[in-house]
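tl;dr need the bound structure. longer version: we got a ligand (adenosine-5'-triphosphate) that a collaborator sent over and nobodys looked at where it sits. i said id run it. heres the input, straight from their email, havent touched it
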Amino acid sequence: MQMVDRVGAGFCPDPQPAGPHHIPRHTVVEDLDRILMQDQPSKFYYVVTGAHGRGKSTLLREMCLRREKKGMGYIEVEPHPKDFGKSLGAALDFNFQEHMGMLNQLVGLMGALPVHKEDSPQMTFKRAASALQEAAAEHKKRTGRPFVLIIDAVDRLAEHAPDILETLQDYCKDWAEQTIVSVVLVCSEGLAPHIMHSRDAWSHAYQPGEIRNITTEEAKDYLVNRGIDAQDAEQLVKVTDGVFQRLEKCVVMLGRGMSVQQATHAILQDIETHFVSAGLLDDTPQQKPGLRVIRELIKPPSSKWSQLFGGDATLGRLHITAAEFRELVPEHTMQDKLLNRSSVFAFDGSHLRFESKTSEAYARDMLPGKSENLKTRIS
Ligand SMILES: Nc1ncnc2c1ncn2[C@@H]1O[C@H](COP(=O)(O)OP(=O)(O)OP(=O)(O)O)[C@@H](O)[C@H]1O
Ligand SMILES: [Mg+2]
């Protein structure tokens, strides 16, 4: 199949069978579809964020399949993102060998060296991106519409191949300007938006809003439908925060005979792991600035702030701005460490807050009890 036909036909992995416990989120899918699939091509690329395990991938795939994939592709960055260019090429049926550079071809013909010297990951990505650009330009001529490319799990690029993420972001901007490829980048709220937000190409980014948790009622119904007693479900939704992943874990744990208390404890331990992975519980270089951020987030808002944003003085500030975050954590490497994938914080590029209510509760109630040292630094 020619690449332009591949682009026209679209690509997306088959969906997981929805199963009887799937919570339909039609409104969210329709909202995404309306924003991302506009009739008039926009000059933006899109950044869809949502904290870990909220159902982003499920929703985006659902949207893609609703459109029968036509003129639309979905690709997920793999755990080893150095191969991202190869995966993109494979999704497009792009033959790297066939299109290798003239020099390589000559060398191959002369038999002087192995046929093809492996490109660097960055170069492989650029070659796949150029091929996509060509095919999408042809697709635009044929249909008058840009090709829509959804790239999921962009966090992996942010963590392991930030140079490729930066190049990708530059392509996103150029393609948006030329309206030939409309890219939708899907990521957790953390390092990826942080990297992209600090670059020029962010000027062409549009954030349609984060993918939110399901409501408490939906979460309760989900647990009850999966055979959990209503009273137990009431208890569990408090720690699961409407995060699918945590709900699923509770179902498994109770199914294995654990009590609600044990399941609650296990979820809180997962939350604690986030604090460990952000380096907030150990003597790490980012501990002090990280605790400064926490202190700021749980600080009661000033009355002026309350008036402006309707904050509740007992709740603390809901978020701090990107500028405040930079002021509290001036060093780049420390910012990155605090915003890793399983972090305590959610950062959408412009605001930072706790990743979940449970993380906030942990920071308020449990963190100060961890050691005298932390207690004084937190309070
Ligand atoms: N609407 C839904 N109803 C029931 N279960 C769901 C729904 N959406 C997602 N899930 C389940 O929740 C889990 C997490 O979903 P998904 O992988 O889509 O989240 P994500 O936000 O992409 O996570 P990550 O940040 O890790 O990429 C999966 O096991 C999925 O099957
Ligand atoms: Mg995902």
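gonna send this back to them w/ a short note. Residues 56-57, 152-153 surround magnesium ion (ligand 2) (CB under 6 Å).
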